[in-house]
Amino acid sequence: MRVGVIAGGISSEREVSLKSGQAVFNALRELGFNTVFIDAGTDLCEKIKQEKIDVAFLVLHGGWGENGGVQGMLEVMGIPYTGSGVLASALAMDKEATKKIFLYHSIPVPPFKTVYKSDYLSSAFSLQSLSFPLVVKPAHEGSSVGVNIVRSEKELDEALKEAFKYGNRAILEKYIEGKEIHIGVLGNRALGGVEVRPKKEFYSYEAKYTKGLTDYILPPEIDASVYEKLKELGLKAHQALGCKGATRVDMLVDEKNNVYVLEVNTIPGMTETSLLPKIASLSGYDFKSLVKEILELALKDEE
């Protein structure tokens, strides 16, 4: 069996994806798999044909690598792949669609408003019921790309301009002060969680990928019953979107122990500073055994 580790891509998260992909590639090699590394560009289909892979291990972050595009192409080519399918990938990548699915399933989310670029540029734009502070984020990016916390009209204007660099929709979300907890899901079980304590204002792109800028608390320092609720909601969010394989669910716990689900990452980072490998260690997985399990889940789906 020839495994193709597909990483890179052309999204804003390309560099992180390449690091994740290299780590997965090295692990599969050490496990004895016949493995090839494929840097995904617009010629991805041709590269896959040339390498004659039997299964794809997807380590793409953002863009068409995570929104169902590559998944759809692989299905047309008849090649099994790790992680979620076309629909779940597309839903999880779209923050507005994700929140609507969560609300349907009674999964708590912070109050939010979707702003279209065309509305923002017109006189029809208003904040309505949302008040400062707010979190402004693009509807389609990951790794906290284009995300800002704003506390004034001026900051809002700048943050929306930044968010609209990545698409024509932005999400305005009520800023909730509290602990940021990430729950790892593998197959149909919650592995546990990690509490992140960034030294910056929030868990930004810089805080995520710069050593020393974030403290990681494993397991989270929260009440045991709240932790169980987080794990239950994390798994429920994973299932509500129809996800498969390994995901990471981003959540918040406020001072009154109210829990909110932010989003589901269908292709979590697999670098040395990534959260999923840290979380998986709580359930006895080292990096190589986690990679092997993710691959085996993909092959099991094909049986």
Provide tags for this entry.
single chain, 303 residues, alpha+beta, Rossmann fold, Dna Ligase, domain 1, five-stranded antiparallel sheet, four-stranded antiparallel sheet
Q: Could you give the topology of this structure?
A:
Layout: E1 2-8, H1 14-30, E2 34-40, H2 44-51, E3 55-58, H3 63-66, H4 69-77, H5 86-93, H6 95-104, E4 112-116, H7 117-120, E5 134-138, E6 148-150, H8 153-163, E7 169-174, E8 178-186, E9 189-198, H9 205-209, E10 214-217, H10 224-240, E11 246-254, E12 259-265, H11 275-281, H12 287-302
Parallel strand pairs: 1-2, 1-3
Antiparallel strand pairs: 4-7, 5-6, 5-7, 8-9, 8-11, 9-10, 11-12
What would you note in describing this structure?
Mg(2+) 1 binds at residues 250, 263. Pathway: Cell wall biogenesis; peptidoglycan biosynthesis. Keywords: ATP-binding, Cell shape, Cell wall biogenesis/degradation, Cytoplasm, Ligase, Magnesium, Manganese, Metal-binding, Nucleotide-binding, Peptidoglycan synthesis. Residues 99-296 form the ATP-grasp domain. The protein is 38% helix and 25% strand. The relative contact order is 0.15. The model has no long low-confidence stretch (mean pLDDT 91). α1 crosses α12. It has 303 residues and is an alpha+beta fold. The radius of gyration is 19 Å and the shape is globular. A hairpin with a 2-residue loop joins β8 and β9 (189-198).
